[in-house]
Amino acid sequence: MAAAGGTVSPREVARPLGRPAGRADLLLFAAVPSARTTRRRRSAEPPPVDGLVLSGLAELALGALTGWPYAIAIADPDRARSLGIRSRPRMRQWHLDLIALGGLTVLAGTAMPGLPGRVAWPLGVGAWTNAMAFGVLTAWPDLEDHPAYRAGVIGSFAATSTGFVGLAAEGVRRWRFGP
Fold first, then answer.
1. Which CATH architecture describes the domain 51-177?
2. CA gap 53, 64 in Å, rounded
3. Residues 6 or more apart in contact with residue 21 via CB below 8 angstroms
4. What are the sequence ranges of the domains in the chain?
5. Tens digit of pLDDT for each residue in 113-132?
6. Is the overall model pTM greater than 0.85, yes or no?
7. CA 70/CA 62 separation, integer angstroms
8. DSSP assignment, residue 144?
9. DSSP H helical ranges for 83-142
10. CA distance linking residue 105 with residue 58, whole number of Å
11. Helical (H) or strand (E) element with 28
């Protein structure tokens, strides 16, 4: 019934009505987009952004912003100290972890949209808490040996591990059984 290229001619629109195409049919045909033109149109609203992707984008943005204090820590250590930066290596680690884990979170949410909460929440929370653990050490490097800090880091690693292993398991599940 469709003409070459997936479009419908005015004659084919009028045929089901049992009469030849007239002026009104041509107007109707002009107003109703064909399947071919519908695919090309962009929606007025962008698709919603997955929460995990948004979390990763925010983490990436913070990672980019932490490059500024890191640059100060390299260029002017005295000024960095006055800003509260006590450990330049931890500053670098914080900066890089925010970027790496933020990027991985965006990648995970983009590659596998609609992840179940049992995967998305531990992944998102773990990515943030893992990176932020180094931010704390930027200002207070002596906290590294504190039991409360260590317990928090263990919880963060557990969440991140749960999230990434869950991501892999969900990928295998979708590969085997479909979405």
1. Up-down Bundle (1.20)
2. 16
3. 10, 11, 13, 14, 29
4. 10-40, 51-177
5. 999 999 999 999 999 999 99
6. no
7. 12
8. G
9. 88-111, 117-139
10. 10
11. helix 23-31
